[in-house]
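STRUCTURE:
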């Protein structure tokens, strides 16, 4: 469990670093676009479709991310 948690934390850290790099690169190309709107709080949140099942992505994420835990428990 400890190893799975460490791997998950590393994956989150790497994803954050990648997203930050992409945001910085995007700021170099278009400083008045998404980065500006993000900083100024002008981004609007998109709404999910009315008939969507909002828990499905989380179920898939937990199954894929913690497959070693599920297999060890069985």
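SEQUENCE:
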């Amino acid at each position: 469990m400890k190893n799975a948690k460490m791997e998950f934390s590393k994956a989150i850290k790497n994803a954050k670093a990648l997203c930050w790099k992409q945001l910085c690169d995007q700021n170099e190309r278009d400083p008045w676009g998404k980065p500006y709107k993000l900083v100024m709080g002008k981004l609007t949140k998109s709404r999910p479709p009315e008939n969507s099942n909002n828990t499905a992505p989380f179920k898939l994420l937990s199954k894929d991310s913690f497959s070693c835990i599920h297999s060890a428990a069985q």
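REMARK: The CA atoms of residues 53 and 59 lie 11 Å apart.
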